[in-house]
Amino acid sequence: MTAIDSIAALEAVIGKPSPAIDLKVIDHVDATAQRWLAAAPLMFAGVGDGIGGVVVTLAGGEPGFARSDGPTLSVPLDRIDHPALLRTGEGFGSLFLLPGIGETLRINGRVAEIADGTAQIAVEECYVHCAKALIRSDFWKADPRDDAPGATDAFVAASRFMALATIDTAGGADLSPKGDPAGRLAQIDGDALAFPDRPGNRRTDSFRNIIAQPRIAAALLIPGSTMALTLTGSATLDSDEAARAPFAVGDKQPLLAARVDDLVLTLAPSAAIARARLWPAAPAPAGVSPAKMLGEHLRLNRSKGIGARIASAVVTPGMIQKGLDQDYKNNLY
What we know:
Oligomer: single chain
Order of helices and strands: HHEEEEEEEHHEEEEHEEHEHHHH
CATH class: Mainly Beta
CATH topology: Pnp Oxidase, Chain A
Radius of gyration: 19 Å
Strand content: 25-35%
Number of strands: 14
């Protein structure tokens, strides 16, 4: 086992994140992100558990069930599968999906208040995440299905999408999407579960959090099914070839793999997924463009200094879209 137990060891394997990555992150839900929320039927949420760990749940319903006035994200408790998991003061990381669109919207912050049937989240980060996870999982190509495996091991083997929740030592939560063909997203290994890392933007919030605080949670889905498998456990990172080889796709091996021990698995129907009616996927909503949102966030991100000002002045949505398309084509695995 070649354990990765420091940021230096992590960066030696996958490289350092580009400083430009943070330029897309703003500290509020702007108008472009509010339009995304107005069309979004599903949210994954990772929330601090009050004892230094993290838990995961889903929320869903009619498009626009979650709303924001800019500094605050509001989520109705009756749209959340397990609303009791949300605790005032705890870190909150979320991921919103839009039918027909591969990119995802991530909103992070803290649970500020739970009152009058609504959870109010004080927003600290808002940004667009790349489409690779949903592309690799064929998420929006699925048809509705009611034949998902009823055994946890078989469900893990058939799963193709994961929402991975982690938390840092300051209690800040993060929720990251992962997607792969069935059998390559996650595998049961004795009493543990393993999953790989694929090429991304190298921001690696999840893995930095795991190094500092290994307790994680995740939700696994089979696109088309309203079942969800949630898990908790303690994760370690490994770059040894024996850990990575089982997750090869074609001739491409991941650079590292994670192993989750102290594993607790729960497989159950998700009312949130059922209400969201994700499949067959509706056409992408008009007026929502991830490339335009990225460009707008560059413009709004004046706090990051001269780099943000230069980028917002010279980078157009067309340039952003071209770069995304090339990355998705050439760097998927």
